[in-house]
Design a protein that fits this description.
Layout lengths: L5 H4 L5 H9 L5 H10 L12 E2 L7 E13 L7 H7 L6 E7 L6 E3 L1 H10 L3 E4 L2 E2 L2 H7 L3 E3 L1 E2 L8 E6 L3 E3 L2 E3 L4 E5 L2 E5 L4 H23 L4 H8 L3
Parallel strand pairs: 2-3, 3-5, 4-6, 5-7, 6-8
Antiparallel strand pairs: 1-7, 2-9, 2-12, 10-11, 12-13
Helix pairs in contact: 3-7, 5-6, 7-8
Length: 231
Amino acid sequence: MTQQNQSENGSSDDPQLQAMLNGMHRFYTPLVSDTMERLGMRSGALHHSIQAVISNPSMKVCGLAFPCRVVPTHEYVEIDRLLEMVDSIPENAFVIVSADSDIDAALWGGLMSARARARGAVGAAVNGGVRDIEQIAELGFPVFGTYRCITDIRRRGFMAKYNVPVFTGGQTIVPGDIIFGDANGVLVIARERFERVYRELDIAHDEESRTHASLVKGTDAREVFEKFGRF
């Protein structure tokens, strides 16, 4: 499996892109989802079952998709492809692990988190089980998953491909797409749409902030809605 270089994935080598990735931390996933829909796009939200395994209301993570595909098996498969994958994770990567079906095993854990963090990844989202919660918490590495699971992946699943398009959580994710996660969940923004969405988010965030401030001051909901068109 060949790895795209960082410039092909759209990386921190692009100062404008890096500035926008950093700027995403001002926003939150519901605002991004609403903004995308107002622009006539799909919301980008991954399935609501994919949530942070460590609760942190202030956590926000934004990076470039590095998608991987795990398939089920009942036989022992050497982990060479898995090792190759974690050693290929590029800087600023948001690792996405997609399972073809419900595999009763952890698809992500503490050792993978340690290596991903050392490689410069910003986080991981798994359509399946996660284990080693204590190690992940100690690392402070943001991980999202659908459930916690003790069992090892051997004889249950194996890493089939990485850095390839995947369909997971109801969304198609292509290498280099923008992945954004927070306490509400995870979403994807297609790379070619990111600049447009980002520009609109600046406006939406300002309007949302003024709407919220008016409600906090005690303004009637209808009056606020008529003024800002939001509620």
